[in-house]
């Protein structure tokens, strides 16, 4: 059975994701509030609807790819005179939100959709714009088994690894936990390289040891923060992302919210959130998140001068 899909939010990620759905033969109507985003998606072959509610009213499945939780909830419920998507949809429509948002917001969005007579899942992604374009995203899905069964072939057209993490909100939970590991480990790897520099240890020597020892991790062996050891890492192209500092700061902010809500005493996760917020508020927002090593190196010079 062919399902009609409304795809809302055709930005850096949503545009190419919607294009991959079209390429896989799905019946897609896209829409974005930005005319430029609509034009870019149209150029990728995505049919554009006149309005979000028009696309949603004709859809079996609604996918949203928005910046933050408030955009999702406002779009679902409506804002001011603007009608909400939940009211516009036919009963039983499956809403899949692929934005990265707080676990609590994902559960609120899910509950609003169900109260309006619909079905809902959270399915955030990792893999960045490159993964969105190549159709190789990883999806972390939260929702009921039968809804996941409907969503799976759709998500497979946009990704290569789809994990059903459990009930509502648990896709976002998996994403926030993974990215907390990533943020903390990138800071740890960067601190170790700067310490090695001060001690006279070459980048290559530290890499050769740590990548084959207990310091091994993705931040070291795939996204290595110094140029040289891993030629494909963003450090070799002046920290062009990759995964931008602003997005890491956002995701660690969501982790910090979840830590506060659950009372988990995560000192490193909390500190990583502060460190990446400072990085993004400085000049790191549009640099790859591995550029944090330059901040650490700069601060180390200042403190060395201060000590002498
Ligand atoms: P983006 O800002 O490029 O795109 C978001 C789009 O949503 C914008 O074009 C905006 O106009 C549109 N939008 C907002 N409200 C809307 C509404 N009510 N109706 C229609 N369109 C609306 O952001 P992005 O980089 O595509 O990221 C989208 C989501 O994916 C974010 O939650 C982000 O955290 C997450 N994410 C991004 C990346 C990445 O590398 N960019 C990686 C993983 C996850």
Give a verbal description of the structure:
There is one protein chain. The chain is an alpha/beta fold and 308 residues long. The chain folds into 2 domains: 4-167, Rossmann fold; 173-307, N-(1-d-carboxylethyl)-l-norvaline Dehydrogenase, domain 2, CATH 1.10.1040. The protein has helices at residues 14-23, 35-43, 52-57, 69-77, 85-88, 103-115, 128-134, 145-156, 170-199, 203-210, 218-221, 245-262, 267-284, 292-307; strands spanning 4-8, 27-31, 61-64, 78-79, 82-83, 94-97, 119-122, 125-126, 137-142, 159-166. The termini are far apart. α1 (14-23) runs parallel beside α7 (128-134) and α12 packs antiparallel against α13. The strands form 3 sheets. The chain has a 5-stranded parallel beta sheet with strand order 2-1-3-6-7, sandwiched between helices. Bound molecules: nicotinamide-adenine-dinucleotide.
Short structural description:
The chain is an alpha/beta fold and 308 residues long. Helix content is 53%, strand content 14%.
């Amino acid at each position: 059975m062919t399902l009609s899909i409304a795809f809302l939010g055709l930005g850096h990620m949503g545009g190419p994701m919607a294009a991959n759905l079209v390429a896989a033969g799905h019946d897609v109507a896209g829409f974005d509030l930005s005319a430029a985003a609509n034009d870019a998606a149209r150029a990728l072959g995505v049919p554009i609807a006149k309005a979000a509610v028009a696309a949603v009213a004709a859809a079996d499945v609604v996918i949203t790819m928005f910046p933050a939780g408030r955009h999702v909830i406002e779009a679902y419920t409506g804002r001011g005179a603007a009608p909400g998507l939940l009211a516009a949809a036919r009963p039983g429509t499956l809403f899949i939100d692929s934005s990265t948002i707080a676990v609590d917001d994902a559960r609120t969005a899910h509950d609003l959709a169900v109260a309006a007579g619909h079905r809902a899942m959270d399915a955030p992604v990792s893999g960045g714009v490159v993964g969105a374009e190549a159709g190789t995203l990883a999806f972390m899905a939260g929702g009921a088994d039968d809804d996941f069964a409907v969503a799976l072939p759709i998500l497979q057209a946009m990704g290569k690894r789809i994990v059903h993490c459990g009930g509502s909100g648990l896709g976002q939970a998996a994403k926030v936990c993974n990215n907390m590991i990533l943020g903390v480990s990138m800071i740890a790897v960067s601190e170790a390289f700067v310490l090695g520099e001060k001690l006279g240890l070459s980048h290559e020597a530290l890499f050769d040891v740590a990548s084959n020892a207990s310091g091994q991790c993705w931040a070291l062996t795939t996204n290595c923060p110094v140029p040289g050891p891993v030629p494909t890492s963003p450090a070799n192209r002046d920290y062009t992302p990759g995964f931008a500092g602003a997005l890491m700061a956002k995701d660690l902010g969501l982790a910090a919210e979840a830590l506060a809500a659950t009372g988990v005493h995560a000192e490193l996760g909390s500190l990583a959130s502060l460190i990446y917020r400072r990085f993004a508020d400085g000049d790191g927002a549009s640099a790859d998140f591995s550029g944090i090593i330059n901040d650490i190196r700069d601060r180390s010079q200042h403190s060395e001068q201060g000590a002498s």
